[in-house]
Design goal:
heterodimer; A: mainly alpha; Serine Threonine Protein Phosphatase 5, Tetratricopeptide repeat; two-stranded antiparallel ribbon; 26 helices; globular; B: alpha+beta; four-stranded antiparallel β-sheet; 11 helices; 21% strand; elongated; Tetratricopeptide repeat protein (chain A); TPR-like_helical_dom_sf (chain A); TPR_rpt (chain A); EF_Hand_1_Ca_BS (chain B); membrane (chain B)
Chain lengths: 480, 387
């Protein structure tokens, strides 16, 4: 394991100079956008993101609404402006972008205190900041010295986006967003920056905006597989399976069959083609097992998902177990398995399963649900409180928390099915993965509100989704 | 094996990503700071800033072991306070109120540990508007925001400051509807008092208000009684207010966003015509016509201001109502000062020659210059543009 990691790191750094040392950023040029680089650098990463959809972004950024407000027409007339230089201009400017949130507090904060000892550890920094802020300061200085150096900007933004994704930390996306600020609203943007912009928008769940950028990138550089993979993923996420298939097909021409099938299998799984998906898995398994061992875990998750969809829970259990034997620390796998266990009402082992993965919201949620089901009131209330505090903190800043998590929190933890249904439906408007449809149905069952899910039922029917869990929920709704 | 298999080294990146799942608690939301402003006999401010953000800004982890200890924070206390205080400016009614740091503690929030900065001002007096200029961390993180909790003497409110606009204006009473109403009454008053156009136009209307129009001779002569003159002024001013309120509400709720550049030269032309009409009266109801026309234009202009404020729609009705009340009050305050003087000297030659004709001539000249300026986009008078 350690040897493989070492080897991977070495090879990884060979292909990713931006990660290797900060010094390479200065005056350095980012790798060319050739097909070769795409194949060796970007495609694997994007395939990885296609295959690992379980870790949710926590925050839907409302910065676009702030920007909208700031663009509101202000009085530009000279006389008006001058006459009102004192009071009115201040009013106009201030209210242009300040969201007033009636009734909100300033977040739950503990009482101020002074530690007794200098050695008390207050915060553990993410990997990116370990070793000091020298790297960060250097990048900032270089950007200040060369603000219009596109390759520098591109490299620096990619560095922070990568850090954000690797650490699941939205702060890094804010830094990348700042770096890309001059290009954020431009129509004419170089391809690499378009891609970075799309990644940030996707993170903020601005899927349509991200798709616009990716289509633009695809028209600029039709043989750039990165845009196609992202497009396939985003279209599939939105339930636009026809477009997703088109993007995947286009990808096959430039990146080969494995890449195509990795994109296609998740689409087949939710469009009534589970047999095709299984056949495709069988087709690529030898390749993956011999050449791309990393993807064995992804295969395990996908096989388990298919087994769940067709109602073969024993088989699903075996696939999850096999995945855990292969990669015992894989968080996505563990989260999927935890959901499976919760769904099976086998919650006793969920806490142990996730105990080594910190207190991410996705982890807190599942541990709290499991604790509640098993009657561990202390853990359940403690984790629920922490989770709701976090969601409230996001609302206070004018954003929406990730509605997939807030809906599950209302549904499974705080017994507020009506709110859960509202959140689940709002989530479903932007994200239509099978998990999202199931969530709406579950919330509707709990809220005894079958009328609100007509669209979801129609969507599943049109997509020809074969999912026994959804079918059971729909039956329950109809009997209500 | 698949015929057209890719030779991508997919495992490299995925192997890397999968192997380095972070094990420590990670931030779950973007960067925020929390500003709690209490208004007492002085300003008492609590400002919570995440240690994560301070690490990026001033550097806390001095031994670069990836952990921030209290000792490291304490040693940087002066730098933290200096950096923070320099990024925050508070104004009360356009006068800056210096704040001093009185100490620093810590508090745990749901996404990590925060430094709690305790700031105080010297004693303050009553004020109408507090302006908070916040320029912290935006140069690093575009998504940073400041959640402001304001506790005023009469009310409270919560606000969010973002990178697009770093200034926040808070009425003294917070966002309670009653104080919002009072605040906008005051804003309406100040708007009229600071609008030279409106004041000059009002003077042009008031000059003949103490006289009466003789239609047969097409001439103004001094009025006989106080009551008819006063009632005439009352209704003319009220019609101006009502007209501006109509277009103000219509602009905000209806056709906002249209270009209003024509308003400014039109106002100047109307001022000129009104003053000319004083000297060469021809239309019996001119004063009414002019007041309503001016009011309609004024309302459109005010509407543009309101559209630009970004006020939440729930607050618009109250603020618009307060604003219109303020406009009416301000107009009558001018009448209350000028009308008694004009009425008492209405029969004198001085009023006829110097005040009425002299004043009207001056207004014609002033209005003409403004009209030329606004139509051509040039500057002729430095006044009142530099008021």
């Amino acid at each position: 394991m350690a040897e493989r990691l070492f080897e991977n790191l070495a090879e990884f750094s060979q292909w990713r100079p931006s990660i290797r040392t900060v010094g390479t950023i200065r005056g350095g040029k980012i790798g060319s956008e050739s097909r070769q680089d795409f194949r060796f650098v970007e495609l694997p990463k994007l395939l990885a993101s296609f295959a690992t959809p379980l870790i949710d972004p926590t925050v839907l950024n409302a910065s676009s609404s702030l920007e909208l407000l700031s663009e509101t027409g202000l009085n530009k007339h000279r006389v008006w402006r001058n006459l009102n230089a004192t009071l009115f201009s201040a009013w106009t400017q201030a209210f242009a972008v300040c969201l007033v949130i009636a009734g909100a507090g300033t977040g739950v904060a503990g009482e101020p205190f002074l530690p007794a000892d200098d050695s008390v550890v207050l915060e553990t920094l993410p990997d990116f900041l370990k070793g000091g802020r020298k790297k960060f300061v250097e990048i900032q200085e270089q950007l200040r010295e060369n603000p219009s150096d596109e390759s520098l900007v591109q490299q620096a933004a990619a560095l922070f986006i990568d850090a954000g994704e690797a650490n699941s930390d939205p702060r890094f996306f804010g830094i990348a967003r700042k770096i890309l600020d001059p290009w954020w609203k431009r129509e004419s943007v170089p391809g690499p920056i378009l891609l970075l912009r799309a990644r940030i928008k996707e993170r903020d769940q601005l899927y349509n905006d991200a798709i616009v950028d990716l289509i633009k990138l695809n028209s600029q550089q039709p043989d750039d597989g990165r845009a196609l993979i992202s497009l396939a993923r985003l279209y599939a996420m939105q339930g636009q399976y026809g477009q997703a298939r088109d993007a995947a097909k286009q990808l096959e021409e430039i990146a080969g069959t494995v890449a195509y099938l990795i994109c296609l299998i998740p689409i087949d799984v939710v469009t009534g083609n589970t047999k095709d998906a299984l056949a495709a898995i069988e087709m690529i398994s030898p390749d993956i097992e011999s050449q791309h061992q990393f993807a064995i875990t992804w295969l395990s998750i996908t096989r388990a998902n298919i087994a769940e969809i067709i109602g073969n829970t024993d088989q699903a259990e075996r696939f999850y177990q096999a995945g855990l034997v292969n990669d015992p620390d894989h968080l996505d796998l563990k989260l999927a398995y935890a959901d499976f266990l919760i769904n099976q009402k086998r919650c006793e082992t969920v806490g142990d399963l996730l105990k080594d993965h910190g207190d991410r919201n996705a982890v807190l949620l599942r541990v709290a649900i499991a604790a509640k089901v098993t009657g561990d009131e202390v853990v359940a209330s403690q984790y629920t409180e922490k989770l709701t505090e976090r969601l409230e903190a996001v609302r206070q800043r004018g954003d929406h928390p990730d509605r997939r998590i807030s809906a599950r929190c209302y549904l499974d933890l705080t017994n507020q099915p009506e709110l859960a249904l509202r959140e689940a439906l709002a989530n479903w408007e932007v994200r239509r993965e099978l998990e999202d449809s199931r969530l709406v149905l579950r919330a509707a069952v709990a809220a005894e509100s079958p009328g609100d899910v007509r669209e979801v039922k129609r969507f599943l029917r049109v997509a020809r989704t074969e999912d026994v869990i959804s079918e059971q929920l729909i039956s329950q709704l109809e009997s209500q | 094996m698949i015929g057209k298999a890719t030779n991508l080294p997919i495992r490299l990146l995925l192997g890397f990503c999968f192997a380095v799942v972070p094990s420590v608690s990670m931030a779950f939301k973007p960067s925020d700071s929390y500003l709690n402003v209490d208004v007492k006999d002085k300003l008492e401010i609590r400002w919570d800033i995440a240690l994560r953000d301070l690490e990026m800004l001033v550097g806390l982890d001095s031994n670069t072991d990836g952990q921030i200890t209290w000792g490291e924070v304490r040693r940087q206390q002066e730098g933290i306070l200096g950096e923070a205080v320099s990024r925050l400016k508070i104004m009360l009614d356009d006068t800056e109120v210096p704040v001093q740091a009185s100490g620093m503690k810590l508090a745990e929030r749901s996404d990590g540990m925060y430094a709690v900065l305790e700031l105080n001002s010297d004693a303050i007096e009553r004020f109408t508007l507090m302006e908070i200029n916040y320029d912290f961390f935006f140069d690093v993180d575009r998504n940073h925001r400041c959640v402001v909790r304001y506790n005023g003497g009469f009310g409270s409110g919560s606000y969010v400051i973002g990178a697009d606009e770093k200034t926040l204006i808070i009425p003294e009473g917070g966002t309670h509807w009653f104080y919002l109403l009072l605040t906008y009454v005051r804003v309406g008053i100040q708007r009229v008092w600071s609008s030279v156009d409106t004041l000059v136009f009002l003077v042009a209307l008031l000059l003949p208000s103490v006289w009466q129009f003789e239609e047969k001779r097409l001439k103004y002569v001094p009025a006989d009684g106080l009551k008819p003159s006063l009632m005439g002024v009352f209704w003319v001013v009220t019609s101006l207010t009502v007209a501006q309120a109509i277009t103000l509400w219509h602009s905000v709720y209806g056709f906002g966003g249209r270009t209003t550049q024509w308003i400014w030269p039109s106002m100047a032309i109307l001022i000129v015509l009104s003053a000319l009409h004083n000297m060469y009266p021809t239309i019996r109801y001119w004063v009414w016509i002019a007041a309503i026309a001016f009011g309609l234009m004024l309302g459109i202009e005010f509407g543009e201001f309101f559209l630009g404020t970004g006020l939440p729609s729930s607050m618009l009705p109250v603020s618009l109502l307060g604003f219109s009340i303020g406009v009416e009050f301000a107009l009558f305050s001018v009448v209350a000062v000028l009308f008694p003087i004009a009425f008492s000297i209405r029969r004198t030659n001085a009023y006829d020659q110097y005040v009425f004709h002299g004043g009207s001539t001056l207004i014609v000249i002033l209005g003409t210059v403004w009209g030329i300026e606004r139509l051509s986009g040039s500057t002729i008078l430095s006044w009142p543009a530099q008021l």
